[in-house]
Design a protein that fits this description.
single chain; mainly alpha; 3 helices; rod-shaped
């Protein structure tokens, strides 16, 4: 039993068009899903960077105030009282702690840049070096352009 070519095309062509249509719809859905996921990741990352910057600024402000108070307390120590040596030692330890915390706070931007690069390395393939550099610069510009919420 042989079908004429026109009958064969009449039977198969709608099926092929239907499969192609479904494949096209699936491709569009996949592209939209990837785009939305990427936009979500970028938004979360930018929010995280803004939060970290605000925390840095607040921490630096508190460290400055604490450092000033410790300096004033050390200047106002009464050498006649018997506890001044212990108090001076405690204040020096506190001042060293403030210095250590300040060093830690100043290292946060470096760590943030390192995190940005690792995130972009994970998101972009290695053959897109220029794209990764441009995107990292754009993230940094956007993060620095945001006003501090304080």
């Amino acid at each position: 039993m042989s079908f004429p070519p026109t009958d064969f095309l009449a039977v198969i062509l709608p099926t092929l068009l239907s499969a192609a249509h479904l494949a096209a719809v699936a491709a569009v859905i996949a592209i939209v899903a990837v785009t939305l996921a990427t936009a979500f990741l970028v938004r979360v990352s930018l929010h995280m960077w803004k939060t970290m910057r605000a925390a840095e600024a607040l921490t630096e402000t508190h460290l400055d105030a604490l450092d000033a108070r410790v300096s004033r307390a050390m200047a106002n120590l009464d050498p006649i009282s018997g506890h001044s040596a212990e108090l001076a030692e405690s204040l020096e330890l506190l001042q060293q702690s403030v210095t250590g915390l300040r060093t830690l706070v100043t290292s946060i931007p470096r760590e943030r840049k390192r995190f940005n690069r690792r995130l972009l390395d994970a998101l972009l393939p290695t053959d897109h070096q220029d794209d990764r550099t441009d995107t990292a610069a754009a993230f940094d510009r956007h993060a620095h352009a945001q006003p501090d919420p304080a």
